[in-house]
Structure formats: structure tokens, C-alpha cells
Amino acid sequence: MSNTCTFGEAMVYNLAQTVVDGTVVFHGYGSPLVQLALHLAKHTHAPNLVFVAGATYGLNPTPPFLTPTSNDWALDRGAECALDIEELFDLAASGRLDRMFLSGLQIDPWGNANVTRLGAEALKLKLPGGGGGCNLSCDVGHLTLWTTAHRAAVGKDGSRQFRLVERCDFVTNLGHRSVDGRTRQDLRHRGGGPDWLLTELGLFDFDAEGHLRLCGLYPDVTPDDVAQNTGFALRLADEVRTLPLPDAHSVAFLRKLDPLNVHVKELRASERQRHFVIGPA
To answer: Is pTM, for the whole model, over 0.90?
Structure first.
């Protein structure tokens, strides 16, 4: 077995750690990292996890491998049954969907996410849209947010292109406070909102105000790296720990399930060069 893991495998492992055994989780259909994370969670620390898979809505599928497109029915192979889309939304609205994974081209300090448009006044770029994330972010018990683009790239005009922004141009998926400052309790939403944000730099939780705070770092990242790539003042948890890495058994499982390295497509070229030394299985 390997004594190293790639950054992608480390991120999958830490996404999996946000999943609690015995819960019902939906992973959407846009991220191979999240798909792998749920399979890994069920294979390791969460054997009683029930997960609803991507576009197929199959329950607990056992695909032979991760396919290049998440809309491939091979990903539904071995599923115990499948929901239709109305049943998925009913599951959330009735309080029986415990966790969902969401991302965005912009994420603000309260965990609001934008997948609708760039440009608050004039439209600069039309994004794919929420695909139900608006409703589900209000109803699902807990949310795990993630992004692989925390590092603020430099745009054509020389400005930094922050993924973590002070204010979203449009709020598609609700975090802990709306743009007018109202809380989820004020709005009487059932769901508890996001409790984690994992990026390629580190892990955030949310303080008592519902504001992001850095609580974990990958071994090759410093708090200053995070601060320089975050578009708002960085808050730190009392303890900022080094994030755990997968053991050799988990790495072997991921490599068997994703022999085509589909998950790597979600990572920038620079992130694909990162590797870490790991312990034995």
C-alpha cells in the first residue's frame, strides 16, 4: 500500500469526516470529490449511512467505479431503491434529510452561496443556477460547503478573484444570515444551515454568530495563506488544528473506486501536485 496520498484524496477524506453514521445524506450531482467522500464514509466510519446519489437519486449504490459524468446510470448500480425528485424534496421538507453538500462561485462569511449570477447590478456572468439548492438549503438539517478554488486567482484586469467574498452578488443557497441580517430562526426555516466549509486550504466551522472561522489547515498551509486568499477579515477558532490524512486502507479504497482519476478534474493543476506522507492502515 502507498505511504503517500494526493491532495485530492486528503480533501475527499476530510469531506467524509463531516458525515455522521446513521444519517441520511444527499450529495447532488456535480462533484466527484463529494461522491467519493460518501462512499468512503460508508466504507469506513459510517456503515449505517443512507446516501442519496446525485442525478439518479439511488439509495446506497455500489458502482464498480466512478464514471467521467455524474449523470451515468452505472453510478446507480447496486442501489437498494431510487427516489423521484418529489420524494427527495419531501424528505427534506419533512425534516428527514440530515445533510447535503453545496458549493458556490461565491461564498460569504455567513455561508451564503451564489451559483446564479456574477454582477450585483449588471449581469457579468450567468451561472448554472441552484437546481433546488435554495429550497434544500433551508430545509436540510445540516450543510457541508466545499470549494476547490479558495486561492484567489488574478483576473485579466489584475484584480484578485476571491471565492470567499464579503458579500455574494446573489444568494442562491442560504447560510446563517440573509443579506438584510435576518437569521434562519427569524425566517423560521427548518434546517440548521452550514456547519462546515472545506477548501483546498483548510476547514472552517461557524461561530455563535453564524460567521465562518478557520479551525483546520492542511499540513502545507499557514493561517496567513488563508487570510491572503479570503475576501473578508479572517476569524480563527480557539484551536486551529492540522487536518487528518487518510490511512493507506482509505487511499487504496479511493484508488480502486476511481481508477480513471475523475476527481482530479475538480482540482486546479497546482493542487494536483500536492502530496502528503501518511501512516499505515
So the answer is: yes
